[in-house]
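protein under study:
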Amino acid sequence: MKMPPELGRHSSGFLLVTLIGRPNAGKSTLVNVIAGWKVSITSSRPSTTRRSQYAKKDLGELEVVFVDTPGMHQPKSELGKKMAQHTEDALDGADVIMLVFDASRPATQGDRIVMARAMKELAASRGRSCALRIVVNKIDKISKAATVQALAAYYNLAKDTAKSVAKGLDGRAPQGTTKGAADVVPPVPRARSVISQYDIEIFPVSALKGAGVTELMESLAYSGSSPTLQPAVEQAPVSRPDAIYSLLPISQGWDTLQSPVPDISQEYYVAELVREQVLRRVADELPYSVACRIAEWHPPYIACDIVVERKSQKAIILGKGGTRLRDIGIGARNSLPAGTYLDLAVKVVPHWQDTPEMFEQMGY
């Protein structure tokens, strides 16, 4: 995987951790909490993340680079194919694959396929000791009993998938099978369990509340490529979720602002902050058709286009009397340095998701 030079491997105490999972599993929220600032925008809408994002975390002697990836799904557009390629590229050379599942819903065929993809990577990387951390996320949404069932179900899914992959299968459920992984409740696994010869552990986590994140981070010290290193977690605590917004690098003044992630521009980051506000205020069908791009960049003056595919979508973004667009602007400015003038406009660009030169201009 091509990485920014600032995030290159500097010592034997380095881990590259790639997060994968279905859309809306909570990968971006987890990375943000670990990093202590907003690496990726978040929303309740699926496929919010459209390209890989990097965050570096130093835990004592252990330097960890986390890669947040787009949710794995069946592509329906050229943009979807590009997002899928981002995820595949991020898996190349990963020391740890962090597989994130949503504990608040039963496992699906899509979850089986994602699990199989991770297992195939493990099988292909025996020489470099790739490890797997299974994160059963969103436990704050379910009871303790349901959490135990979810842990057992995904552990069982991992075992079944490992067997399927070993036999050369793709990990999918047999045709005609309707029972999901979460319908089967095997004996409850221990907090740290090893499946077969692989380094695999499973953790209950609430990325939103911060529960279980420290334990997850501690486990990275014992993953394949750095088995002897022990991170000084107490010296580098995981930030509380409610502290993320106060730690945004963007909160600096424009004269001292540095790009929060080495491989992306300030312009892309600000455009993403605007898109985040759009996603939090629109109907379910619209997020796939929305993108944001900077039209003028002269901080503190910034002009940003909100791009949609149809005129009817433009009307949705504007809202009655332009009220929704106004609220989007207010929300975005709250994450920008004081005194920023943010000029928003809604532009219709038909079929932009199937026009590579368009979405590549937007940074995807």
User: Anything to note?
Assistant: The domain at 5-245 is CATH 3.40.50.300 (Rossmann fold). The radius of gyration is 21 Å. The first helix runs from residue 27 to 35.
